[in-house]
Design goal:
mainly beta, ten-stranded antiparallel beta sheet, six-stranded antiparallel beta sheet
């Protein structure tokens, strides 16, 4: 008696096959493509172009580029390769695009990198190990690029703000002596000294990179722990000089403030006021770009929790987002610091993902994709949904939908409307085999080739609702075949017990098939090839995962089906039949080891609401059930062996080919 604990095959980059699409038309908006099927986007803008990429983890992402004036897609002169973008920034002059992310299929800090591409030629001009979530900042004239580097090579094995000069594409300045910036001398006789620091924020201006930094150090003197905490402001110039001041400090003290010492964050350059604007403890904070001294001329917006400050490319206005007080998105003049408007109605919800182009405010739309607001009019640029006719079928995302009424709703939203305007028909053909429904069939010309690449261990595979002739499983490391089962026939010859049946009895075909002895190669690619002499392969559900042996199946186990068809006699005594699906059921009697009884109880308790493949005997397909257990009885019977009863109800098979 075994089970296969399934992994999620719908994850990105885990599952693929050569099964064809259904052939329905793709539902898409008329005019602009707002990428509404993508929930969260990373976006960047220059004067005329929007760059957008899916925020979800993946090393095979599509980087989109759109002309904001026409809405047309712009072809990029470079390809990402095996690179997962986490943040990006476009130079205001439109020449360069800086991307920060992970390379080589690994999320290790050693593979975290910043890259700069020439948008005209596609050449990668610069790359450097970096902290990918700490931001990228271009100066207003595109003459400097600032980011947070992260070298693992001594002596610079700490976080450093880097300044790069386009054209030369080399480091022209960096904060590499951070310790000497803030460390006080430790008193004679002190011990157990420790110190650390972190950046509150940074922004590139015309004359250098402005930053805020918090620090802390401590030591023990006369058995008492003392603390020193500071907030520093500084400017790193293109010449490499680093000027800084201590904004505020505390200590030495035995009662320091909790956590990091408050320091300005969300820094943005405001040339109209010749200072750097940021956020500190519930209000705006500003400091001079020349002296680094505090400037009290700031907008009035106390008592809020700011999330972002986004400056227009011409420097004349900026948008502040907060998640504590409505309106959430407020627009300010850079010259007078008066509030000039709110974007809440146009955006339709909270977002802190806002960028400026020359003519538009671009934002991550709460409903998915991105949105545009015309800078001059303040109106949202809306997309136009196509009008469809009742009965039309379209593919949108990974599902097919049928129109229930004449409408112009987006399919996934129309399903939820009242009354509904669309019906969700389920997954598209290539994904129906992993949709968790035994009766929804994926169809493909023979052979159907499936590949599974997962970081999880896979040593078992189950297939349900098969209409095929052979199955073959291979484990691959690149192009190297590590293991091959060979072609296994699905013919069932159990009814052939003599010459007559040999010649005249039609052989059955196994519809449910399992493999539970695949070698445990973590990270290998599992390739499954299914063929059919009828030229068409069908499969209801594919399950892959780790095999767990519970014990030995005992005689007395019982199996059957539960039929959901309707069979009723009419007033004349004749049957009226409506054929519906059925589900397998099984009552497994299992001999288990007594010393494993607690482990089995804990394992199955964790799977009480998860469909699992239960395998009584691999050679008896009636004992192979994909479903939920409804009864688990464990009987401590003897010192070595005990008994277990598992009652299982399978998922419903409502395919039309049964």
């Amino acid at each position: 008696m075994k089970i296969i604990r399934p992994i999620d095959l719908t994850q990105a980059d885990v599952f693929s096959s050569n099964a064809p699409a259904d052939g329905y038309a793709q539902w898409q908006t008329v005019g602009r493509n707002f990428l509404t099927s993508i929930a969260d986007l990373v976006i960047a803008c220059n004067q005329t172009t929007l760059f957008a990429v899916n925020e979800s983890p993946s090393f095979s992402k599509t980087l989109y580029a759109f002309d904001l004036d026409t809405g047309g897609e712009v072809a990029l002169a470079f390809t990402l390769g095996n690179f997962d973008i986490k943040s990006m920034a476009a130079s205001p002059d439109g020449q360069y695009l800086a991307l920060a992310g992970y390379k080589n299929g690994s999320y290790s800090s050693l593979n975290a990198e910043l890259r700069v591409y020439n948008l005209s030629t596609g050449a990668m001009l610069f790359s450097r190990q970096a902290r990918v979530f700490d931001g990228i900042s271009w100066s207003p004239d595109s003459g400097m690029l600032a980011f947070v580097g992260n070298s693992t090579v001594a002596p610079k094995n700490n976080t450093t703000v880097m300044v790069v000069a386009p054209g030369a594409w080399g480091t022209v300045g960096e904060i590499s002596n951070v310790d000497s910036m803030y460390l006080e001398s430790f008193p004679d006789g002190s011990s157990s000294a420790s110190w650390g620091y972190g950046f509150g924020g940074f922004v590139a201006g015309p004359d250098g990179v402005y930053y805020s930094l918090y620090s802390q150090q401590s030591y023990i003197l006369n058995d008492i722990r003392y603390h020193i905490k500071k907030s520093l402001l500084g400017r790193l110039t293109p010449a490499g000089s680093n000027n800084y001041v201590t904004r505020e400090s505390q200590g030495p003290t035995t009662n320091p403030v909790s956590g990091a010492y408050p320091t300005p964050s969300l820094l943005t350059y405001n040339g109209e006021k010749s200072h750097i604007l940021g956020y500190l403890e519930g209000d705006f904070y500003a400091f001079s770009e020349t002296t680094l001294a505090e400037d009290t001329d700031v907008p009035s917006m106390p008592g809020i929790t700011q999330q972002s400050i986004s400056r227009s490319l011409d420097g004349q206005e900026f948008v502040v987002t907060n998640n504590s007080v409505q309106p959430y998105l407020r627009k300010f003049s850079s010259t007078s610091y008066t509030q000039t408007g709110s974007l809440d109605a146009e955006v339709g919800g909270f977002t802190d993902n806002i960028r400026y182009s020359a003519d538009y405010i671009v934002f991550g739309a709460p409903e998915g994709g991105y949105g545009l607001i015309d800078v001059l009019t303040g109106d949202r640029v809306t997309q136009v949904n196509p009008s469809v006719t009742k009965g039309d079928i379209f593919t949108y995302g990974e599902h097919n939908y049928r129109a229930l009424l004449d409408n112009n709703d987006r399919p996934d939203l129309g399903v939820k409307s009242s009354p509904p305007t669309w019906a969700d028909l389920g997954f598209i053909n290539p994904l129906r085999m992993v949709d968790g429904k035994v009766g929804s069939l994926t169809q493909s010309p023979s052979p159907l080739v499936i590949e599974i690449t997962s970081p999880d261990l896979i040593d078992g595979v189950a297939m349900f609702g098969l209409e095929a002739s052979t199955v073959q499983a291979e484990l691959l490391d690149g192009e190297t075949v590590l293991f091959d089962t060979g072609e296994e026939s699905l013919l069932d010859s159990s009814m052939i017990n003599g010459w007559y049946s040999h010649f005249f009895t039609r052989r059955g075909v196994r519809k449910d098939f399992v493999l539970t002895s695949l070698p445990p190669y973590r990270g290998a690619t599992l390739r499954i090839t299914i063929t059919s002499t009828d030229e068409v392969v069908r499969i209801g559900e594919l399950v892959a995962g780790q095999v767990r042996k519970l014990g030995d199946l005992l005689f007395g186990s019982s199996f059957g089906i539960e039929d959901w068809s309707r069979k009723e006699r009419n007033i004349f005594g004749e049957f009226e039949v409506i054929e519906r699906g059925f589900s397998k059921r099984g009552d497994y009697q299992v001999s288990i080891r007594t010393n494993q009884i607690s482990w089995i109880q804990q394992l199955l308790a964790g799977l009480r609401a998860t469909p699992v493949v239960y395998i009584g005997d691999e050679s008896q397909q009636l004992s192979i059930i994909y479903g939920f257990y409804v009864v688990l009885d464990l009987v401590v019977e003897k010192p070595v062996y005990s008994q277990c009863r598992i009652e299982v109800e399978g998922l419903t098979d409502d395919s039309a080919t049964n």
